[in-house]
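cron nightly-structures :: item 1 of 1
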Amino acid sequence: MGHRDTQTEKRLARWQLSVEQTTTDRLTAGDWAELLPFFQATYAIDQAGLEASISNRTHLVRVRERGGGRLVGTTAYGITDVTTGQGERVRVFYAGDVLLRPQLRGSGLVQELAARVVLAEMLRYPLVPHYGFGVALTHYMYLGVIRSFTDAWPRRGTEIPADIRLIMDSVGRKAYPDTWRGPSEPVAVGRRGRERELVIGESMLADPDVRYFVEHNPDYARGTALPFMVKIDAKNLASLSVRSLRKLLGR
């Protein structure tokens, strides 16, 4: 019952939230003054690093408590077009700077915000393939991606397809212009994961997916992240929906 009670409390908390969105080029000094301490409560990051990271995306979503207006969550995202080696146009959603206060972590809020944006884009461009790009600071983030989606890269035992590498490289250069080294290389993102999530004990390394993350991102504790790509289509959305339903039911 404890697990279900916790999930219920998080969902109830989520219902008392409001969501606001703005383009990152319209953020003011007052906005940055609010964002910096919010991020510094979790990550070791200075204002220059935060501004550079968020400004590499086109939109910032802020989640607030209704009534008092306290900031409880953020995510920044951008959407860009990429042409593959076969001349096919694809649209790529790339997010970053995702942060929720502890009581909302694991609530599914980020997935709901992302789904809202992605589904709107898919309705606008129904004949264009869509992908999602991001970076995993911790093994928890990496496992969440590859175990939520059927088509996601990189993963053990599978080569990243050439077209996926091209898409990742194009978006990675845009999202991390100063530190991007390639689709198969860790990228420095200017902050580290939460301290408790940086500890990987011997028992965790028995999981081959955790070992894959550590082997391909050995400096994760120093603030590097593993790039990943997800195909956004009916099959992948269906696999995510099944997982979300099981979580909702506490199974």
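cron nightly-structures :: done
Residues 245-251 have pLDDT under 50 and may be disordered.
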